[in-house]
Fold this protein.
Amino acid sequence: MDRGDHTTACDRPAADHGETDLLRRCVVVGGAGAVGGLFAEHLLRSGAEVLVVDPAPGAATGASAAGSARAVNVASQDVTAGSPAGAPPAGEARVLRGDITDIGPELAGEIGRADLVLLAVPEQVALAAVKQVAAAMRPGALLADTLSVKGPIAEEILAHAGDVEAAGLNPMFAPSLGFAGRPVAAVVVHDGPRARALLRLVESWGGRAVRLGAHEHDRLAAATQALTHAAVLSFGLALAGLGVGVAELAAVAPPPHATMLALLARIAGGTPEVYWDVQSANPQAAAARAALAEGVRTLAGLLDGRADGEAEFAAALGALRDLLGPDLGFYRDTCAEMFGALPSYEPRSPHESSLHELSHHESSLNEHSPSTSTSSPVTTER
């Protein structure tokens, strides 16, 4: 599959009637979860008719668990970042309790009328659903997913969904951050007018649609997600092994260390299942972790007391500068801005820490836990 160029923020198109006409009727499976809810809300704001399908839709939308479709407002209290200023309030989505892996007559009828069916569900649910969902869709409709690994779902689509357009989206950010200025990896398996319309809608919401092949997506996700998380988690495990208290460290921590502590807190305070999936679901994640371990061994080898160790260390830094290439200055300046914005550390009493942790845990459960067994969990650090 060819890789398309992404549209930059300065020439991002606004949503027009062409996109919404092509994607007028949308079914969001797992729409009671945070990822599905993000897409449902933005589709509504773009003028689409949205049906949320979830085994227990009331968990996130406030709808009753009625068996048939009913209206429910899925808009959040705050306009998601990336929504145009002055946008009208989100409309109402209908909600249907249903199991996408066991499609009944009512759900089959809704899928058959849809222009877009979006699977915002865990990988195993999506893989199990592709064949029967595609069979229920009309030819030329669009089947989309939000999985963080694209290889297996692309193979399933190629095997069982030849009559429909198909595109996989992977928002590389937590839904609470919104689309504005953020990348959305896009793997188009079966191209067509509706697939292109969906990517244009993502751009109109403020996102940057970056087209990739399925293998390329998974390779990059292993580096940007699995490797990054593994480095932060390994840092935390090493700290635990050193037996130094965080309060002691924070009192004297230079900005790089404080930043690493912040990253560690974000991951450690998130949902374990999400970070487990990042490491276990992508078949290329193991190679990323092996590369991390090899990097530590290489660094240790430069510091083993050899006479030429310092020169080799300097050469290694030069190689890393070459790796960053023309982007070195951008990331160096970005780091300086981040360090300048770091708040000063203020020690907490045990009582304050307990209250803060309880408050964070409750908000984390609300934001990051899937609403049902088939709603897609949210990655807090993509």
User: Anything to note?
Assistant: The first strand starts at residue 25 and ends at 29. Residues 9-212 form a domain with the Rossmann fold fold (CATH 3.40.50.720). The chain has two domains: 9-212, 218-347.
